[in-house]
Amino acid sequence: MNTEIVFSLLAAAIQSGTPILYATLGEIITEKSGILNLGVEGIMIVGALAAFLTAKVTGNPVAGFLAGGAIGMMLAGVHGLVCLGFQGNQVVSGLALTILGTGLANYFGTPFIGQAAPGFTAVAIPGFSAIPGLGTVFFSHDPLIYFSFALPPLLWAFLNHTRWGLGLRAAGEHPEAALAAGLNVTGYRWTGVLAGGFLMGLGGAYLSLAYTHLWTNGLTAGRGWIAVALVIFAFWRPGRAVLGAYLFGGVVAFQFRLQAMGTHLPSSLLLMLPYALTVGVLVFSCWKKRGDEAPAALGVNVEPAE
Amino acid sequence: MWSSCLVFLGAVALSLGISAALLATQGRPPLRAMLLFFDGAFGSRWALEDCLLKAIPIFLCSLGVGISFRLQIWNIGAEGQFALGAVGATWVALNFPGLPAPLLIPAMMAAAMVAGALWGLIPALLKIRLGVNEIIVTLMLNYIGILFLEYLVYGPWKDPRSFGFPMTPQFPDSAIVGTIGTTSINWGILLCLVLAVAMFVFYGYSRRGYELRACGDNVRAAGYAALPYSGLIVLVMMVGGTLAGWAGFLEASANMNRLQPTIVVGYGYTAIVVAWLARLNPFTIGVASFLLAGLRVGVENLQLELKVPAAFGSIMEGLILLTVLAGGLFVHYRVTLRRSA
């Protein structure tokens, strides 16, 4: 009986970790290109609303999911425009994007609070889902989770084993050298920002389409910021991002279980757990590595040519 | 100077235009909405008083974050420090209700200062000891601080006679900062004036202020000059926490007369917009605080007249910040048109 509880908790950890995983991978590819995007929280919540509304209107959750990604890409495009087009400060632009995104989502979402939209539900994979333990944990999820399993290896292979990945990393590590080598630094940075925004939007879409299945304002509840922190925890590596995202998913799932079991701990104190853990993992990763793994030119704009 | 004013006005006009277009997409009359917005914000004595009243906490918070931005330290934590300051002040008001006002008010201020400054000290220490990113830590502390406030008013501090509403009992009269004359503006505005002058003197005429500006302009050079960078980080974060904490104290004492969750309305985030727009100068921060308070008051009028959701204010704030940021290009660089070869 106890093992069953553990397995279902692990499955829940993956479920609640998945939106954070999408967003963390998005921030990794963005930061690898040298652009710091602190708008993740805003992009995610607008992605969540766009996905919800599209699924509601079209009745097609796949269209909703893609709409979440597309709107995420558009908002990230605003960040790209301000930072790459207009040389604006990346920190402030990201914060502004979060303020704007939160506002947009509440503005357009308020009439739909509490309403449901067609979303994704669990599809057990025949055969695999019958494996004791592993079946529950890995093979009885909704399609978006299976899709997310493929992303970290793909991103890893792209960044480390393709010419484009190398160019993108060069734009983030040493843009002047990359420019001198004839690379299109601005193009690579735009690629990182837009692809990252797409993934962040998908993370938001997951929340409304597969996690809650209905709209509430403030759906993301800081998950975007946790993703920014997890990039540091992951040392900018997609593989470690999986670990971090599921760790957080586990804490969130555990805290909900405790509440459902009727614990005497006040819910406000329990809700602090993920945020306190974020500070904890940051302290841990800085203590271990002092953040040396960050792309060298992260957050630094490339001066325009004469 | 003139070009930056022009760019600023252009950016604000563009943001207003986009905001009006957003209203139009929802079938609301954009021109009438803009008139209602400005009339609601600045069109009457009552509205102007409301602007000043809301400008007080925004000003205090942005003075606090502005000083850390000057050092290139990104303190996003005013919201949480504000909450903690309100908690600290409330603790004093609830535990020492018998004290006379001349003792109780300073004691509340001291408690708000300690609570806010401690909340700012945590990220500062993590930053200088381990290099932990202060943006994320201050943000997480916002969430934690607000949840802590909610825990208190839903739990141990809840007024048994509040019919289940999450709020503390009303403060004793001696714990309430009064209003000036027949206006609705509280004496906190005097605190703002004093602090603005103090900050001006600190930036311009004190040794620490000079070191702060030097470190902010070039951290590495400051290291060679043996300037106390780490000490300055602790200083700006604790000062920032104190100022935001006092904003929380004033809101609890003068406006709410008690502690309740609705005290947290995002002044700490508006403060970031203000501090950046005002180029971190105490007097322009005052002007910008008033204008952004006006934005909130104007949006309240839109809420009332056209049922526009309150979130419209955040959209406008975000747009203004983004357009001003983009407009910076025209201030810092000379833009020339060139035919591509």
Question: What do you see in this structure?
Answer:
- The complex is a heterodimer of chains A (306) and B (341).
- Chain A is mostly helical.
- Helix content of chain A is 72%, strand content 0%.
- In chain A, helix 2 crosses helix 9 and helix 6 crosses helix 7.
- The radius of gyration of chain B is 21 Å and the shape is globular.
- Chain B is mainly α and 341 residues long.
- Chain B has two domains: 1-28 and 309-341, no CATH class; 51-307, Orthogonal Bundle (ABC transporter involved in vitamin B12 uptake, BtuC), CATH 1.10.3470.
- The longest helix of chain B is centred in the middle third of the chain and has 30 residues, at 101-130.
- At the A-B interface, helix 3, helix 4, helix 10, helix 12 and helix 13 of A face helix 6, helix 11 and helix 13 of B.
Helices and strands in order:
The complex is a heterodimer of chains A (306) and B (341).
Chain A: H1 2-32, H2 40-58, H3 61-85, H4 90-109, H5 134-138, H6 143-161, H7 163-173, H8 175-180, H9 185-211, H10 223-233, H11 238-260, H12 267-271, H13 273-289
Chain B: H1 2-25, H2 30-42, H3 45-70, H4 78-95, H5 101-130, H6 134-154, H7 188-205, H8 207-217, H9 219-224, H10 229-256, H11 267-277, H12 282-306, H13 312-332
Helix pairs in contact in B: 1-2, 1-13, 2-3, 2-12, 3-7, 3-10, 3-11, 3-12, 4-5, 4-6, 4-10, 4-11, 5-6, 5-10, 7-8, 11-12, 11-13, 12-13
